[in-house]
TrEMBL record:
GO molecular function: nucleotide binding
Domain annotation Gfo/Idh/MocA-like oxidoreductase N-terminal: ranges: 3-119
One Pfam family linked to the record: GFO_IDH_MocA
Protein source organism: Companilactobacillus nuruki
Name by which UniProt lists this protein: Oxidoreductase
Taxonomic path: Bacteria, Bacillati, Bacillota, Bacilli, Lactobacillales
Amino acid sequence: MISLGIVGTNWITEQFVKATDETKTFSLTHVYSRTEIKAKSFIEDLNKKNVNVSTDLNSFFKENFNTVYIASPNSLHFSQAKLAIENGKNVIVEKPSTSTIEEFTILDKLAHEKGVYIFEAARHIHEPIFKKIQIVVDKHRDNLSGATLSYMKYSSRYDAYLEGKNPNVFTTKFSGGALYDLGVYTIYDAVVLFGRPGKVSYEAEILDSGIDGSGTLTLKYPKFDVNIIVGKTKNSYMSSEIYFGRDTLLLDNAGDINHLDWADDNKNITDVPTSKSENPMDSEAKEFARIMNENDTVSYDKLLKYARIVNRVLEQARTSAGLVFEADEEN
């Protein structure tokens, strides 16, 4: 198995480590946290032994492990990934991998120069259910006529924001907001299924903190539009849809996809058989490890291309809405 270090001790790093255990792809050997107590508690909760703990990031990346998984606040991804690459580590970084396309370009170039991998962890595009969507879209591509994708979920941190606190996900300092969280899933859907859009526009509901609580995004393609609805300040239970003229593919959710239906012109709705892993990060763990073990540059280049387009679309959308991050001023 590939030796793994992680940055962060939150629920998503725990889920990723469990996925690597289930798939026998990576072996946790090093943990970085700002406090030793949190790191040790994290390791104990996972029932891990012989795991090294670091509270200094520079010394952490000099340790002897192969790959790092980074799941810190968005604005920290760039500096942490850059330091990891400079120390010869392969990088798996949570989406979005950077706050700006300039940051992404720097990491892309540096990883190539150092001969290491950098993966953006958009886990849902690796799941079997998403692969089934790709098959359906490819089969009916001649009739493809657009899509409506929705991912709105009331944030567990929004109440704290309303109480006057300053959660990371609702600040420009940490590159927060609906677009750079839930919106990344929907943009990945569009880019992987339909390619790079020609024009991008985003109408955002901007909170007092300067980030978007929700918004509507339009991606224009030569023959159709993709309309996207994202939000972290309200819940939506609306299905997402991909249109093929008279027929429609229904997704229960554009980000956390669990069920597919096909609706025809006569309003007949039939289930599209597929499968779903209990841990949604299993598939990406297996794919990242496979690419590294087999040195599959074709698959890697495809994922890198998707990430490059998604990060550019994110910045174009944010710019069109007048959203400014502190990271913009640093580049």
